Automatic annotation (TrEMBL):
It is found in: Cytoplasm. It comes from Limimaricola cinnabarinus. The lineage of its organism: Bacteria, Pseudomonadati, Pseudomonadota, Alphaproteobacteria, Rhodobacterales. This is Proline iminopeptidase. Belongs to the peptidase S33 family. Coiled coil: none annotated. Keywords: Aminopeptidase, Cytoplasm, Hydrolase, Protease.
């Protein structure tokens, strides 16, 4: 099969949207989007050389996959099985695996489960799927770098909930009552968006707009589902990272990433042995500074091996 764009039934009532492009005899690559819950974009395809047999897909419940937002039978293990099902469907033996943020989490989990199918790994903004990382970002970094925004973030919660703000947010986001989940989802997404950018368009939440009618961001619901469950990881990825030493890799890391700081990438690199390329003028957003250029170069070099 030379190319494909459409839905693939992976069972459990899920149909995931997938796109396969590039020459059938070209080196194969897999791109894993972030979130969890966001989806693939045309800009992701532009990271790869044209002579790449590239598979991109929207994970269960995300992007164009159906049913949209579905969280049943939606765990890291399910996503790994979906990746293997797609690899087998399109007769790909081994591939380069690329992902950033949550996509890096899933890339590592997949590589640890199926190292024999991975020719190399390129990661950006490493997230290892732990509660500790989320607490650092939202309960340590947020009040230190954006204290007024942290006040906005906490203002949505009742006093007893502030003993565990993250757990309270995830419970609210997953509450079926729109009066509860609507403002929580918007506040979570707004806070995360500000933390992801070096120069955010706004540095505060618009509290009056949080409960207003209108469309809601999709990602907070999937993130709450995954984060509340420890990203459905059986064991810490960092503890197992030394098993990846035979797999070549490259890590691209923004110096000023407030969500996935350099310390995480360096901790992973120490176990794995992959180099970390720090982008001095970048935060978490892939569009920052020289991040895209660094990713393109790393992917091209890895694909040429």
């Amino acid at each position: 099969m030379s190319g494909f764009a459409g839905h693939v039934d992976v069972g459990d009532g899920h149909q995931i949207y997938a796109e396969l492009t590039g020459p059938a005899d070209a080196p194969a690559a897999l791109f894993l989007h972030g979130g969890p819950g966001s989806g693939c974009q045309p800009a992701h395809r532009a990271l790869f050389p044209k002579a790449t047999r590239l598979l991109m897909f929207d994970q269960r419940g995300a992007g164009r996959s159906r049913p949209h937002g579905a969280r049943h039978a939606n765990t890291t293990a399910h996503l790994i099985r979906d990746i293997e099902a797609l690899r087998a469907r399109f007769a790909i033996d081994r591939w380069l695996v690329v992902g950033g943020s949550w996509g890096a989490t899933l890339a590592l989990a997949y590589a640890l489960a199926h190292a024999e199918r991975v020719s190399g790994i390129v990661l950006r903004a490493v997230f290892l799927g732990t509660r500790a990382e989320l607490e650092t970002a939202f309960l340590d970094t947020l009040p230190r770098f954006h204290p007024a925004l942290f006040d906005d973030f906490l203002a949505l919660l009742d006093a007893p909930e502030r003993a565990d703000p993250l757990g309270a947010y995830w419970t609210r986001i997953l509450d079926p009552d729109p009066a509860i989940h609507r403002p929580a989802a918007r506040a979570w997404a707004g806070t995360e968006r500000i933390l992801s950018r070096i120069t955010p368009a706004a540095a505060r939440l618009d509290r009056d707009a949080l409960a207003a009618p209108g469309p809601l961001p999709a990602t907070p619901f999937m993130e709450a589902h995954y984060f509340r469950a420890g990203c459905f990881l059986d064991a810490p990825l960092l503890d197992r990272a030394s098993a990846l030493r035979p797999v070549p890799g490259h890590i691209v890391q923004g110096r000023h990433d407030l969500l996935c700081p350099p310390a995480t990438s360096h901790a992973l690199a120490a176990r794995w042995g992959a180099p970390v390329e720090v982008i001095e003028d970048a935060g978490h957003d892939m569009a920052d500074g020289g991040t895209i250029a660094a990713l393109r170069a790393a992917i091209a070099a890895m694909a040429a091996r």
